[in-house]
Known about the structure:
InterPro entries: SAM-dependent_MTases_sf. Helix content is 26%, strand content 29%.
Amino acid sequence: MRFFKKYVRPWLPKEIDRHQMTLRFLSGGHWNHGIDVGGRRSVLLDKLAVDRKYILDFHNAADPKFSGDTLYHNLEHGLPKPEGTGGWDLVIANDVIEHVENKQRLVDDIFGNCRGDVVISLPNTQHFIYLKGLFRGGMSKQFVFDVEDGMDRHRWITYYDDNKAWLNRKAAEHGFDLVDYDEGWRTDGALHLLLLFLRDRRKYFVFNQVFHFRKRG
């Protein structure tokens, strides 16, 4: 293991956080109405130039220090527009769509009710950590999460190529273009030495995929 950490790990992809990528994509922008869907403790909107900030989450209310408002709405019924406006100027939905049964409705509303920028991240369940769960007979445990008021889980299996194809198609249907894309890598363990020799090995290293779309015109 000491040999691995000293000589092998430096050559493997570095870990990248999806929130860091989101902030980099949106750096320098300004929006009137912005919402963080599934934002939990609202770590993003207070770091961006947004006049009216909202958070919407299944479980936790926003942090008391959050300078915006909390919306209470069931995402199975889609995403509403802000009252008295033509739509959101910024929508962030990081690792939330896979928790919703009616994902088609939600994604259609995210794009359909936005007139500016959309950032979406999805997990890649072809990543090696999910494969380890499969081999050990505990695949289902990879998709269940303990939260303050009970339990949550993934409703969908999200694969690397499927994520790209689906979101790009949905965005195009609503008049959006992909302007930024990045991937979060997660590496640990000697298992990666084996994965390096697999075909399409990139799919097994990428943990999250982050997409930034913008409305045309």
